[in-house]
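User: I'm writing a tutorial on reading structure tokens. Could you give me a worked example: one chain, its sequence, then its tokens, then a sentence or two explaining what the tokens reveal?
Assistant: Sure. Here is the example chain.
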Amino acid sequence: MEISSPRSALSDRLIDAALDLLDSGAEFSLRSVARAAGVSAMAPYRHFVDKEALLAAVAGRGFDDLRAALLAADAVDDPRAALMGQGMAYVRFALARPALFRLMFAGPGSGPPPGGDSAFGVLARRMRDVLPEAAEIGAVTCWATVHGLATLALDGRLGPEPEVPATAALGLMVAGFG
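And here are its predicted structure tokens:
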């Protein structure tokens, strides 16, 4: 959807400005993004076809950030501890950046989890260590669980300290993997 490739410094600046607006809850339009980036109102159109294309790029950056958080949590020797860490990193990411999290999964360009070197790929690789005989369905089970926990936490359904029930639920899930 993006017009220019590879990404230019200005398109990165526009994505940064869009992320800041999204995280702050401020009005979000191409004009407000241009203003926040300190460029003309027409500058975003040189890099993105429309607002939807910019939002898709913002969601893409969110998936990159989520992947980085999962990789950091995965950097432990015990596969089950790594899986728990990834789950909590996912929930914490959602709680720290709710508007971005919701955009990533409900906005333009959202869809099935990509494989390979993605956030989902980090989880899928770890599941091969934890549950080699059913790694693929195990990864989907984990993703569904952590996504559900994150969504419930954002909606206030896990109480005032959502990390407590999220940790307990993830512990139960990981224990179930035998």
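What the tokens reveal: The mean pLDDT is 91. Residues 51-74 form the longest helix (24 residues).
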